[in-house]
Amino acid sequence: MGRTLAEKVWDDHLVRSAPGEPDLLYIDLHLLHEVTSPQAFDGLRLAGRKVRRPELTLATEDHNTPTDNLLQIVDPISRKQIETLRRNCEEFGIRLHPLGDAEQGIVHVIGPQLGLTQPGMTIVCGDSHTSTHGAFGALAFGIGTSEVEHVLATQTLPQAKLKTMSVTATGQLREGVTAKDLILALISQVGTGGGRGHVVEYRGEAFSSLSMEGRMTVANMSIEWGAKAGMFAPDDTTFAYLEGRPHAPRGAAWERALDYWRSLATDPDATFDTEVVLDASAVSPFVTWGTNPGQGVPLDGAVPDPASFTDPVERAAAERALQYMDLEPGTPMRDIAVDVVFLGSCTNGRIEDLRAAAEVLRGRKVAPGVKMMVVPGSAKVRAQAEAEGLHEVFIKAGAEWRFAGCSMCLGMNPDKLTPGARSASTSNRNFEGRQGPGGRTHLVSPPVAAATAIVGRLAAPSDL
Amino acid sequence: MEKFTVHTGRGAPLRRSNVDTDQIIPAEYLKRVTRTGFADGLFAAWRSDPSFVLNLPQYANVSVLVAGPDFGTGSSREHAVWALQDYGFRAVISPRFGDIFRGNALKGGLLPVELPQDAVDWLWDQLEANPDMPITVDLHAREVRAGEKTWPFPLDDFSRWRLLEGLDDIGLTLRHEADITAYEERRADWLPRTIPAL
Fold first, then answer.
1. Quick one: DSSP state of residue A164?
2. Which of A156, A161, A323 is the best mutation test for B, with the most CBs of B within 10 A?
3. What is the Cα–Cα distance from A73 to A321, expressed in whole angstroms?
4. Which positions in chain B touch A153 (Cβ < 8 Å)?
5. If contacts are CB pairs under 8 Å, which of residues 28-87 in chain B contact chain A?
6. Complex ipTM, two decimals?
7. CA A172, A175, A176 angle in degrees (round to 5)?
8. What is the Cα A455 distance to its own chain's centre?
9. Record: contact A434-B18, CB cut-off 8 A
10. What is the per-residue pLDDT across A404-416, written as a single tens digit (0 to 9) for each?
11. For the segment A229-252, what is each residue's pLDDT rounded down to a tens digit?
């Protein structure tokens, strides 16, 4: 019987398989950042262990870093965490792209950009959005700190076999509908636990016609519906993106790699444990109203009435979410005014996202009273945007043009919502307090973020 | 890792679904570089509300948390497990867990116990009526006992054995170092390196 993409990558990384035990998988690339690694390095030191393969490991600084300057981390606890990473990388011989480095950026933006993320690889990081790398046909997932220590020490991970799932998007995306809308619509359909225990493969024309940036947006949010990982079959779009990148194979090695990568696609006779179908042609710009990524509606819609949920657990969650979000049932989404617009994150902080937002903002102004922050996903994305003049579009419109980092996605660095403030954010989580204690988040696509900044209320470019 | 065999303790009813790890411990507390001392950050935002379950005197000294579905979704932060343990929890009962949280809990010896929603509903009602009701989580038998009720819960044999013995994963894997070395010798030569090979 044929095998799926995920099964092929799994099989090719088997170090050991024994009945009654989890499989032992080899890890091709281990990405590190300052937040989830210090206790892992401490564990190595305590046990007198070394990093087994420093050359398969890369570190960057992103969660704690400021985006208004490259020199000073004001908060002493954040500074200490960054300094700890620098010391650990030096001690254990790990390459680090620190604040101010030309390759610094959000861990899931720099891997692909450097060509380190390739089809068929296993990639892990102490960060749930590691699923992003699945856009290349890699098996990539987030791990906890104990597992970070395990990978540092052994370059392997014990993993119980996972179930496979296909999500097939039928039809084509309509004009003005983005990868972000597609994934938000999917999560609202399947719920935050819908992917539990599965490696997902995104299939069908609406997914395969996405650019690499769009695929990364979708794969990134696999974790938001509970999937272990989300993958796209590698194809010519993938290869074109990779060719010539610093760590991509060259010459004869490129040809050998291509042959292998082309063999990874799911076999025609392979079957999935679970199959989901999504009508992509029915998706329109999508936004969230609640406090988990599954609580979303089309921008054309309204805040739902909790009484409309038949499941008592979902009804209670909706009641609580509306109270936290300070929203009334029935309010049209377009009537919701925002204080802050955040464009960035590992979900939507790549060059294509910045281009899409700049196109909407060109020649227009951010509404009075609205603060818009544009935070490139990496120093390279920032440099590219400046080479294209996008920064001038943002600055002329009245937005803030920042340095690279996780920024307002997670409320850990100086970029935070103030209590009660409401944002339209291109990030991935609308959890209570995610962007700062008491902050209220609506997840949106880059074009909706830009249009919302101009109008001051949730809006699409077609409203302008 | 601390062993887990049988634990009997008092329970806290947390009537919420989708308790993501940002709620369990907000990012602000993740700046620390230590592995302990996270109890103060546990449910930090919710604990500012005096009526929050863990602020009620009848739920002092609880060690079993009973929550709604999709507990521990979101961020991979293992600090969520450390915070629950530092506060005194030994087990969390929920109809469904986020995969990464569940894995982290199993690594650290905090038992994630999956029970159906009707069992959780029963425990919530009972714990609200009788906060002193003891709950027993028995890993040998893979069952939860409370009042007159007994429910089995699923856990694979390997994870159960590791927890019962308190075994360290890295030590277990390093028993197979020869397999790792053999695998490394057959890896493709085009695979990327972040620095030249040592």
1. E
2. A156
3. 34
4. 170, 173-174
5. 28, 30-35, 45, 68-70, 73-79, 81
6. 0.96
7. 120
8. 27
9. no
10. 999 999 999 999 9
11. 999 999 999 999 999 999 999 999
The partner residue sitting opposite A313, judged by closest CB among B69, B79, B188, is B69
* A374/A396 Cα distance (integer angstroms): 13
> Residues B176-195, buried b or exposed e (16+ Cβ, 10 A)?
beebbeebeeeeeebbbbbe
Q: Which of B52, B66, B70, B76 to mutate to test binding with chain A, by most A CBs within 10 Å of its CB?
A: B76
Joined together, the tokens standing for residue A105 give 């950026």
DSSP assignment of A210-275, as one string?
A: S-HHHHHHHHHGGGGGTBSEEE----HHHHHHHTT-TTS--HHHHHHHHHHHHT-SPPTT---SEE
pTM higher than 0.90, yes or no? yes
| Per-residue model confidence as pLDDT tens digits over A27-59 | 999 999 999 999 999 999 999 999 999 999 999
Q: Band of the pLDDT at B196, cuts 50, 70, 90?
A: confident
B174/chain A closest Cα distance in angstroms: 7
Q: Extract the tokens encoding A135.
A: 């856009």
Compute the distance between CA of residue B160 and CA of residue A326 in angstroms, rounded to an integer.
44
- In this complex, do A128 and B194 lie within 8 Å of one another by their Cβ atoms? no
The answer to whether A196 contacts chain B (CB < 8 Å) is yes
